[in-house]
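Hi everyone,

Forwarding the result from last night's run.
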Amino acid sequence: MRHLKTGRKLNRSPSHRRALMRNLVTSLFRHERIQTTDPKAKELRGWADRVIGLGKEGSLHARRQALGIVQDEAVVHKVFDTLAPRYKDRPGGYTRIVKIGWRHGDRAPISLIELLPVDGAGKAKAEASSSAKKKSRRAVQKEKGAAAQKKPAQRQSGKKTTA
């Protein structure tokens, strides 16, 4: 029985699984969003959180540990110099998984996994989208009806004008 066994096997050997996750983590930090299957995205979440945690620690030892996971030194610099300061006040949960559909070849569920934006930018976007929300037809009709009732009806004179 699999009780208390963590992680997904993904139908791969342990070395293949580790190589896959290292490649996915490197790509995620390089591009800040990638498309992959749902189980891979869910497994990638923990790996990404661990590397950002190392970046927030910021020590030389943490940088060397991150180099053991992330395969590109430039990407490790990006994690430590730009991504870790972005999440300095956030205790965890640095990624978002959005389900986007199914792959055509085998109908595998595909997800978009992305790094969350800075908190201030996310709040500003949410406020902008809520203020610019489209009104429903009924709300628009109510406004028109209320405006028509407020406006006095124009009198029409009984005289006809001819030119």
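Residues 98 and 112 are 5 Å apart (CA to CA).

Cheers,
N.
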